[in-house]
Amino acid sequence: MDLLVVGWLPSSELPLRSLEDAVGKSSLANLSEDEIGGIIILGGAIEGGQIALDRGEISIYSSAERVTKAFELIRKFPNLPFIFSGYSGRLNPKGISEADAFKQLIAEQGLPDKNAHCENQSRNTYENVLYMKPMIENLGSKTEAQALKPWLIITSASSMYRSAKIFEKQGIAIIPVPVDYQTANQPQWRSFDLEDGAKNWNRLMHELVGLLAYWITGKI
Hints:
Strand order of the largest sheet: 5-4-1-6-7
Number of strands: 7
Radius of gyration: 18 Å
Helix content: 40-55%
CATH architecture: 3-Layer(aba) Sandwich
Distance between the termini: 35 Å
CATH class: Alpha Beta
């Protein structure tokens, strides 16, 4: 019975889709640089670590859209500061941080690094925001009313709700740029796939447990 629940894709797609849709996708077409404080890229897509150090190559996880969208927006808004935030999600990390690996990717892509900033200490989303907050306040431009302009934030759609709540709690205005969607508009009612189902359930439970833990500890 458990395998049926895991493998029948709508059982995980429906709640995961609700989570991915909890924060709407912002339209960037009409935004100008003058309206934005900067760009934030949350870690979780890059494999730094010992392999990257030994092999001299950076690997990107399945959530590669965090990185590719970052490159797109850095090119679109070349004068904005951008921050990549993340050390490692591993319990016992070795080698280089995700943030340092991102620096290497920036260089490999031929992108200018004059506005590049990295936060390479955080191990989770709460620490991402906490450690970036002074950087955001220092780097971000302000409105005429002296309020910080909102920053674009790039992360996976399933993580955006939790991320947005943490930024809100810290008093930082954001414009969400969710990527890495795992669900479509219509569930795959006739599909059965244990591997995809397990991945969906893993993402869903990770977010729900994280939301509960952050709510209990007052972080959101």
